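Quick one:
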Amino acid sequence: MSAGRGGKVRAYAGIGSRSTPPDVLALMRSLAEKLARGSWVLRTGLSPGADQAFYRGALLSGGEIELYLPWPGFQTRARLDIEGPGVRALSRPSAAACELARRFHPGWNALALPARRLLARDAHEVLGAGLDSPAELVVCWTADGSLDGRDLYQDGTGQALRIAHRHGISVLNLARPDHVRRLVHS
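Output:
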């Protein structure tokens, strides 16, 4: 892993809706390229849309990537052949991530196992493989510009935002023009 200030790994979660608009997907890819050149480690889940845009941008710029998958073989066709040792994948969420995810989703008991696994891997995207190394930043897109995921219970982005909010992690939502300016001009 790359070290940032003081030898600490600088990681960000690159996430968002599967229905992220095409222009925002292009921006995500560009931001992932920029962050990779700045030695930031991308954490993402490889879902279609935002996750894959971040993945491609970071990978094509030689960045380090931590992929958190809900089950082995998830979105295999989206992975690029140029992956090297800088791409590490956790093929399923840990039991601890499942327990943490349960606490952040009010309808957990009504969810099928695949949905639970998708939501549990969001805990790893935000808090790392051992759930003990929080990302410095979450970069995302939601239609409502949410920073805390309070009203987003139907998708994983809301779950990740709730976890980030609870852990005091900064969120930059690309649905907010001021957040776009901060990222593009930093």
